[in-house]
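Q: I'm writing up a methods section and want to include an example of the input and output format. Could you take the sequence below and give the corresponding predicted structure tokens, formatted cleanly so I can copy it straight into the document?
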Amino acid sequence: MQVLVVSPNQQNRTVLKTELEEWGHDTTLARDALSAWTELQEGVAPSLVILDQGLPGSGALDLCREIRRTFPPEPYVYIVILGAAADRGHLEQVHSVGADDYIAGPMDNVELQMRLRSAQRILDLQSKLQAARTALKKQATRDNLTGLWARAAILDILATEMERVRREGGQLGVVMMDLDHFKEINDSRGHLVGDAVLREVGVRMHQAGRRYDLMGRYGGDEFLVVLPGCSLSQSRSIANRLRARISETPMDLAEGTLFITATAGATSWSRGEAQPNELIALADQALYLAKERGRNRAETVPHIPKGHESLRRYRAISLGRQGPDAPDEPDEDTHSVIRARARAAEKPSGDSMPDLLLLPGSDDEGTDSEPVVDENRERG
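A: Here is the clean output for your methods example:
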């Protein structure tokens, strides 16, 4: 293991380094608390620190206390203090600052080696416990088929990213996507083939997404993607990239070759009150719009803040959900007809209709260039 020895006595440092390296430990030396702290901050974090209580003043106790205050509990740093006295009050003081063991002088090599073996066993057990916790956390937050975030985790991520936008401003895109005719694969080929398809889809989504895109399996063959910093058109652009990556080449599976396509719907939010379920519902509406228009494509439905009732009615009409004051839906789905319908549905409240309100799926939603966002977010 990696050991840091801190002692003001050069002879003690040399002797300890020789013995520790003979026992197979990588050893670094420091002559005082300041150089030891620098090594802890800048060097390789040790598994074990040996502190000589002969450090000036209360240097050994202060350094031990600072290590416990500053360093996280995992991976654990085991601390042994070497001293001359072994009275009860002194031992209580040593352990109160977070030391794991105390060896009273004169130091005996056999005793030191036995204490280090005990420390090694404790550190090994702690490492195994940490690995088990990490595996359990991954099992709870990751989908075991696709490797993407699990449903509960991606919903938490969406809520967190929305809070970030409320604090810092910016935009947030949300995409719902599912595989076309996936049920037919399960019914005709079996669920094992369906599982293989989902695994490959997870791989391809990882390959196509940006480093900071957050992708999760929402359920079955449905996927929820959270896109920090994305406008409506940027969200659709990324949705199309994910969809295209899934379908660009056939899937060569052990059970045979399959050609899979996907359909996606996107929305984006930047201001006004909204809840995660509302953005998911809008992306879901866009998904069903894309299915109605032939599948293997991506469509958008914009988020419209409350207070813009004419715009909200306009959106409803464009999706075929007209208000109570609107006439029957015409057969022609054109901008001019829908704008006329929206004006007819207007209440006389002075809430005017803008000339360039964008329809779901319109190409005039702004630039498709990708935003620059914080890349220190864990990708899904």
